[in-house]
Amino acid sequence: MGIEPVALGLAARGAAKLAIDRVSKRFGRGASAVQALEPVDLAVQAGDFVCILGPSGCGKSTLLNIVAGFESPTSGVATLDGRAITGPGPERGVVFQQGALFTWLTVRDNVAFGPRALGKPVAEARDIADRYLELVGLSAFASRHPYELSGGMQQRVGIARALANEPEVLLMDEPFAALDQQTRELLQEEIRAIWRRTGKTVLWITHSIEEALFLATHLVVMTARPGRLKAAFACTFSRDPDPLVATTAAFADAKRAVVGLLRQESLAAQRQEAAA
Amino acid sequence: MAAHPVVLDEAVGTPDAEGPDVARRTARRDRWLGVASFGAMLAVWIAVTGSGLWPPLVNPTFLPSPLTVAQTFLKLANSGYQGHTLAHHFLISLMRFGIAFGVCIAVGVPVGLLMGMHSGVRAVLDPPIETTRPIPKLALLPLFIIWFGIGELSKTIVIIAALFPMMSIAAMQAVRSVSIRKIQAAQSLGASRSMIFWRVLLPASLPGIFTGIRVAVGIGVTMLVGAEMVATSDGIAWMALTAADFVQTDVVLVGVLVMAALGYSLDLLVRWLERRLVHWTGRE
Predict the structure, then answer these.
(1) Which residues in B lie closer than 8 A to residue A103 (C-beta atoms)?
(2) At what angle do helices A151-163 and A181-198 cross, to 10 degrees?
(3) Average pLDDT of every residue of chain A
(4) What does the pLDDT look like over B96-149, one tens digit per residue?
(5) Residues of chain B whose C-beta is under 8 A from some C-beta in A?
(6) For the segment A90-145, what is each residue's pLDDT rounded down to a tens digit?
(7) Distance (Å, rounded) from C-alpha A238 to C-alpha A1?
């Protein structure tokens, strides 16, 4: 049990489901331009749960937005199953931090939105929605509206909605960042269970080291802006059936190693902010 | 540790500590206060006009008693004013308002939505709307009469001129403030452009559109009075304005009260529709 340094570049891993091939991003032009992302090289294989850790402003959300198709890279290309990503699409399900649910629809219709968008008839879409609501434990709330639910329940709706289209890849942009510690930990356990059951490929952005170690099969640490890959690890805690694995000595050792790496970058990010 | 009863008392007084019972009692009390406030206004009116109980404190020519106004209302309802029944005056006013309002909802709101979604449409339509917005639209009425004649058209157009920019700008702002996250979520669920419009942009904009409609109702009734000031021979505001020329204060008051009732019931109607249609207003 623990973490091992590993190479996650395209050359090192060969075949990849999701390939991020020298993707960089620059915002603005001329003197005021900001390099958000240095060329990043990352191969995600089918069934991987890749967590990307980095200080705030390091470009990790930009990377996810590029993979989601919300932004286009300044250079390089991201591909899924060999096809270049040029825009958003249902084969890449996205879960946002908060505020992305459709407030005017019931919980059931929020989850049924994707199947409806893909042309399924209403009744079938609602059946699919009910199945995924059961998966996230919200069957009793199917007819409520999102604003009647707690923050943790709203995030579960978001996860069910993203799963309902049976996407090839799940992209999660700090989905639990706005939740309290207890809710977060319970949802992390649920996500682990769902991931084991469905075997989905996941790209997960977070700034929480514990969350990354607990969930990830692979963990990537990014540098302060402009973001680069600083280190990558293979991580085995996610395969441990023990829900209390985060309290073990091996987990503490792994955390110490990652904290050391991330701390340097957070300090660098702080210096950048002070200078700006 | 010694107890701090003062702190405890304050804690009990906070809204969170109030039981449903307390909340219900407060609501009932506030309702009574509202009725009492209305009753007090009526009592002052009854008192200063005497109302047959004592000699009036003000000349009845300037302020007739509520009883006189009620009698005038019945008389007007039965025999009409200047050749038209009260119902005719009321309905013709309602029609002028209704047509103008309907045009603004049917055209102004879609135009605003387009402006919100398309920077090109915004670039074309924003200058005319923004530059004409500060002009008091009633000042344009003489011009509209020259252009469109003294019939219904010029009256309807002056009301439209006031309401259209309000509604289209409200709709534009509503679209532009829709969270990009919701649109991105719909896109990555595979929604087509038309599905994003009908199932995401439009419902997300409805609360803002309704706010614009409510403001427009109030302004619209005001504009109606202005539109009926010139070149008409019917309408509820015309009735009040004409009666003022003959110092028929009771008829003026009937007109004022009917218009107040019209404005108030239209506001109630829009609020009721808002509660029914956009239950998510202000919630996230």
Answers:
(1) 204, 280, 283-284
(2) 20
(3) 90
(4) 999 999 999 999 999 999 999 999 999 999 998 888 888 888 888 889 989 998
(5) 179, 181-182, 184-192, 195, 199-200, 203-204, 206, 278-280, 283-284
(6) 999 999 988 899 999 999 999 999 999 999 999 999 999 999 999 999 999 999 99
(7) 10
Q: Which 3 state secondary structure label does DSSP give B50?
A: coil
Residue A188 CA to residue A6 CA, distance in Å, equals 24
Cβ-based contacts of A92 with chain B (< 8 Å)? 188
Task: Output the tens digit of pLDDT for each of chain B's 284 residues.
Answer: 444 444 443 444 444 455 678 888 899 999 999 999 999 999 998 888 887 788 888 888 888 888 888 999 998 888 888 888 888 889 989 999 999 999 999 999 999 999 999 999 999 999 988 888 888 888 888 899 899 988 888 889 999 999 999 999 999 999 999 999 999 999 999 999 999 999 999 999 999 999 999 999 989 988 988 888 877 888 888 899 888 889 889 999 999 999 999 989 999 999 999 988 898 887 76
Q: Are B208 and A135 in contact (CB under 8 A)?
A: no
Cα-based angle A87, A153, A146 (whole degrees, multiple of 5): 70
Q: Of A6, A174, A170, which is closest to residue A91 (Cα–Cα)?
A: A170
Over residues A42-74, the pLDDT tens digits come to 999 999 999 999 888 788 889 999 999 999 999
Q: Which three-class secondary structure state does DSSP give residue A254?
A: helix
Please give the Cα distance from B57 to B2 (Å, whole number): 64
Rg (CA), chain A: 19
Which residue matches tokens 């003022």?
B244
Residue B10: how many CB atoms within 10 A of its CB? 11
Specify the pLDDT at position A219. 93
- Alpha-carbon span A13 to A270, nearest angstrom: 34
For the question of whether the overall pTM of this predicted structure is more than 0.90, the answer is no
Pick the residue from chain B with its C-alpha nearest to A151: B284
- C-alpha to C-alpha distances, A102 to A109, A187, B123, B173, nearest whole angstrom: 9, 21, 30, 19
Q: Which residues on adjacent β-strands are paired with residue A19?
A: A43, A79
- For strands A18-27 and A75-80, give the pairing: antiparallel
Number of H helices, E strands in chain B: 13, 0
Say which residues have a Cβ less than 8 Å from residue B132's Cβ, sequence separation at least 6: B161, B165
Q: Are strands A201-206 and A169-173 parallel, antiparallel or unpaired?
A: parallel
Contact between chains at A100 and B280 (C-beta distance less than 8 A): no
Backbone angles phi, psi at A37, to 5 degrees: -140, 120
Nearest Cβ partner for A102 among B182, B278, B283:
B182
Residues 6+ apart with CB under 8 A from B281: B207, B210, B274
**Confidence band for A231, pLDDT divided at 50, 70 and 90:** confident
Cβ proximity of A146 and A157 under 8 Å: yes
